[in-house]
Amino acid sequence: MKVQYTLPLAVASLAVAQGSGQTSLADALASKNDTLSALNGLLQSQPDLVETLTKLENITILAPSNEALESFLNNTEVAALVAADPSVVPALLTYHVLNGTYYASNVTDTAAFIPTLLTNSSYTNVTGGQVVSAIAEGDTVSFYSALKHQSNVTEANLNFTGGTIHIINRVLAIPSNVSSTAVAADLRALVGAVTKADLASTLDGLKDVTIFAPYDEAFAAIASATGDLSEEQLSKILQYHVVQGTVGYSSDLSNTTLKTVEGKDVRITVGDDGVFVNSAKVVIPDVLVANGVVHVIDGVLNPENAEATPNPSTTAPAFSGASTASGGAVPFTSGVSSVTEAATGLTPAQSSSGAGGSGGGSVSESESTEAGPRATAAVAMGVLLGGAAVALNNF
């Protein structure tokens, strides 16, 4: 895709239409054309979106810099994805528009989850629009998208009549469905278990979900208890990790109980030692997916042991008598390839929400079943943005 370097006529004409005396969106973008000419060029191909943005009030635009957008658009694989589906570009652009005016000073060291204009059901099944996570880390304001993909603000608060613009150093990545995200995050045992239980399409199709996803070591710790599980029993266990109707981002979690798809409750405990789900600790919070959020945990939850309580000093399996297999083999991983074979291996570490730990999860950079391929393509673009992976120990 050829990147344009002049202010689009579609945008310029709207600047005139808005009149003088106030800074229009087009004027604000034009004032930084040396930094945002690539974005201006891309907007030229989306006149309907430009018209919509010009009429909106109380919005925040995360504007990728020339370097960020050119690197993205000039990738041959990205170009192929964009050419194959004309909805990709408007979906990506609307994901960069926040509902509400958020100046840099409004962003704190506590993660905030802000709805965007991305409501296209082919890409998201979250009520109110897909979100980005905003957090201030020292003097840097950052926005996180799919698979902890980090975009930093390089220039803040370019105000216009409808809100404000922040220039960012990396294009956001649209969150994918649960299945694709689990694969990209290298949650191999979970991927294998979901496949065996034939739950992938079910999980991907649910609206507004919170999923507690055990990493590989959690499954390895109960290996002896998994061999004789029927598909129905495995399905019951996995559904106990899923809450529907509530998207529980880390900032929303409190000491409470949540009803799972399986039917029983899980108990959330929040304290100085972190966030726990029954006795399992959240080690990687807030992995955004197309239909909600995933929190990676260090234990497999047991619906027959819902009273399991946190023990910060050790994580005992919730399955009584369960143990690791000989040689430490991880159940359900046969035939499931690892993304770390081709990318950097990552381990969970201390996060902004206070949940920390160690284990085998990794996160690479990178409603409806219809959302699957399109959302997967969006994550593929996110992976292409930054090479192979983003280390969570920097989060």
TrEMBL record:
One annotated Gene Ontology cellular component of this protein: fungal-type vacuole membrane
Low complexity compositional bias, start-end: 363-373
Family matches, as SUPFAM superfamilies: FAS1 domain (SSF82153)
GO BP term, example: macroautophagy
Residues of the FAS1 domain: 23-172, 174-301
InterPro entries: Adhesion/Biosynth-related, FAS1_dom_sf, FAS1_domain
Signal peptide: none
Region (Disordered): 346-373
Protein name in the entry: FAS1 domain-containing protein
The organism of origin for this protein: Sarocladium strictum
